Batch of 3 targets.
Target 1
Amino acid sequence: MRKVSITGGKGGTGKSTVAVNLAILLSRDRDVVLGDLDVEAPNDHILLGVELENESPVHVMMPFIDYERCTKCGACGRVCDTGAIMAPVGKPPFVFPRLCSGCRACFFACPEKAILEGRRILGSTYSTPVPHGGGFRLVTGMLREGEEHSSPVVLAARKRADEEARDLLLVDTAAGTGNNVSIAITGSDLILAVTEPTPLGAHDLSMILELTGEMGLETWVVLNKAGIGSEDLIRSIAEEHGSRIVERIPYSREVVNSYISSRPIALGDSRASAPYRRIAELLGGVV
Ligand code: SF4
Ligand code: SF4
């Protein structure tokens, strides 16, 4: 199984548009799974115009205090690095569920075995058949609204996508270079870094190339909204990091309309779909 991750800077750079269009094009010849691991704002299903199916909840451990056993020693509060347990010595501890990552440190630290392991739902994963192209599966991770700790949902969605992928796994990551992006791109054969020719795009691209360089992952740059600004800086940043711009996607009203209408551009054969076809061809030659 081969894995290509599509990542990018701040929201709106077009990485999800690239991901869904590549999934459609490549699924015509390949067995494709698309993993939407942007769990705080998954939108591939919206771009593809499909309803999410086959929900599976993602649970994490949730501590419950047995106040009859608790001696109010405060040890649980001292080991909790997210502030999810307030436990002043001499006072009964209090748990803030939304801050809890389910790491179990308090459970192991309690000398009285006064912490019981409950569980709660942090989010869900989904596996949805998509009829476009040759047909493929979309695996989506979605964090529950208001939750703080998204990494367990990214891990669960990555695991489900890994299990379902046989031939080619495309992964749409969160924006930026945080922990969730590192989790999502781990094990990739190739990264596509989508950026735009703006100072912010250049800054974000530099961070992404540093991260993928540290992880030893080959990275290609896809320049989206080409023509709206200077491309020299993007080109020099890419070259500085041993990368290159493999495709320029011009700004197009047609692509914006495809986004609004949930009808990906690759479903037609207009001029605006040509850059996506060229990227798919390039990918087909290496993965
Ligand atoms: S499970 Fe971890 S994060 Fe949650 S309360 Fe215990 S120590 Fe804190
Ligand atoms: S570590 Fe155990 S005994 Fe100590 S305050 Fe926490 S729950 Fe109570």
Target 2
Amino acid sequence: MKAAVYYGVDTFKVEEVPLPRIGEYEVLVRVRACGVCGTDVHKAMHQTVKAGTVLGHEVAGDIIEVGKKVTKFKIGEKVVVPHHTPCFACSYCHHGHHTLCDQYTKTNIDPGGFSEVIRVPQPNVERAMLSFDHVDYEEAAFVEPLACCIHAWERLEVFPGDTVLIVGAGPIGLLHMELAKIHQTEAMVADIKEARLQQVEKMGGIPVQASEMKGVQADIVIVAAGNKNAYELALSSVKRGGQISFFAECPPDSHIAVDPNMIYGKELTLTGSYSSTPRGHWKALTLIRGRNLNVTQLISHRFGLEDLGKAIGMASKADDCLKMMIKP
Ligand SMILES: [Zn+2]
Ligand SMILES: [Zn+2]
């Protein structure tokens, strides 16, 4: 089978790799759509993964083989495949921090989603993989990124009518904007790129030019752009008593200056949000299936495996693109 293998920054080669073999509690999935995520771009551009890695984790596909002891799934079922699964039994899990569980990142799909076929390990099969109908593969591939956003919202205390400022109008910022509407809050989305602000307006949000936003104040600020300017903007635009969601990953060794007296005097709450939980996947699929939000309007490009490097390069520059779908 073929996979797009990472060799550095935006260099990927489509190679013939062995078809994974499954154990008796595992399944094999033919990948039909895998979204390019900001974290794939981050890993490639900052070279935080080794050459030879296959990236991709926003996977929807068909089951083509099931292990002898698998009872929950059948060949031919359409599934959303989570790449990580918590143990649900450790101290982190019991505190509700499922994404911090030691097992979480150890339960990975093999190889990544930018390949024709993946092996899904037992914990993911038993506790997190979801079968779907009534949505197409591309919509299903939005379950993971939407679940990441849902995880952030679950860590905030939201009141209807709150003002929410989302910093960054990329695909993730726009998913947060859709969730803001579902939470009956007023969404402003800040970015420096005019084309992205136009998309915000088209989708019914309030666009804010990030370079000239003096005076903008919000109850909740969600940082959906991985750079320190975005975080500094969040700290200067949160209301007294407000909350900031640290959602986007910055380049390694990033630092921001925080005045402790501001957090003290304004009673701010800062929450981190990393990755997604099985519960978030369930909610995300339910929202997409119920047409509570339209995710396909966020797709700007569709590519085969051979154009993954091009897609990563485009996403890193945020040039005229939103969500890019890889169709192996
Ligand atoms: Zn993702
Ligand atoms: Zn755990």
Target 3
Amino acid sequence: MTDQYLLPYEWPGSYFIDEEVIDAVNQVLLARSPHRFYGHDLQHTTDQLEALFRERLGRKHAVLVNSGTGALSTAMMAADVGPGDEVLVPGYFWVACVSSVVRCGAIPRLVDIDDTFTMDPDDLERKLNPRVKAVLVVHMSGACGDIERIAAICKERGVTLIEDVAQANGGSFRGKPLGSFGDLAIFSFQYNKNITAGEGGMVVCDDDLLADRLWAYHDVGYARNAAGRVDSGARVQSWGQCVRMSEVSAAMLIPQARKLDQITGQMRARNQQLYAGLSAIPGAQPRRVIDPAGDSGPFVIMTWLDGETCRRLVEYTRARGVRPGPHGMGNICMTDWGLHIYHHNVSLVEKRGVNSAGRPWSDPLNAFHTEISYAKGTLPRMDDLIARSNLITVAPVLTEAACEQIIALFREAAGV
Ligand SMILES: Cc1ncc(COP(=O)(O)O)c(C=O)c1O
């Protein structure tokens, strides 16, 4: 055992909380105007951040919210997901990807992953059926899979495509930014993400009606007028969730958003170094990243011959410092990756209701759910990949020298 930690903590944006961020936050506080719609001396940081992302992503609309979970819920509501609908979701996800569907009263159906560790387009084609209202593609662990093909399938079938870019902000596919492929796309600015306000999120789209729905659902259920007051004449009048972003959070995010390419660039350089070094170990298989130039960089995933080998290598290297300090994850077997793995979600496996009446499972419109399982074994490819893969977190401050040591330790553990 060693107390030397070769991996820095895995919270990429946290390394960019600097004087510039502090000044930006102070400006909002000194103006005593933390609410986005009105105040003593509104600084319009939320407006500025939305404009920055609209331009960066080439999208017409951006709506900031207070979490990625809030972004998913708002997007599901905007997409009109409700009882009787299915939403297709990959099995490697975060719990919010399914809770946002269930809370809308709809039923998630799992799609297997392939060696990109994201949705398998072939299984997507097999699972599509007339009840599917939306497909949620999740760009897990920093990079996407075959998003072009998935977008083409959804377009051909007339199904709404929602991209979850929470873990891949700043990533791209063949030069096109992630978050520009779906009818809707969501982001998270939670602490683990590439830029962070501790908590935060965003939804983007191009369609004007979808945007009106996003504005209403993320707020009090009605659109606002130019003065920031509820517009009772708005074309969308519904029920809101009040998941607005504060001006303070946006102030934290603007300086980081301007450095997003620098942040992802630093992570990608180390991620590629690790992939190159670890892939040279006999029997090691790197995650298939179709466009490595578009990997946003915060993770490396390696697949080994079997689960036993994977665990042995992780334990050997962790004991010799390939881990972060006591508060981080760092270098783990993916079987230990918590609520990212579908069958670890007890509420899903057991089809627990959001209320005591057991909704949405008890809703007669959802009676078809009896043919759907979430138990381990539902997604054989994913089960096999997760059982023999490990995940290493890559912070922007990880050094080249530390990566060399990490590669050497994995080689030593593998006996090469
Ligand atoms: C893929 C994915 N989607 C959605 C979310 C939800 O984001 P948040 O934690 O901001 O609610 C996360 C966050 O952890 C995530 O990893």
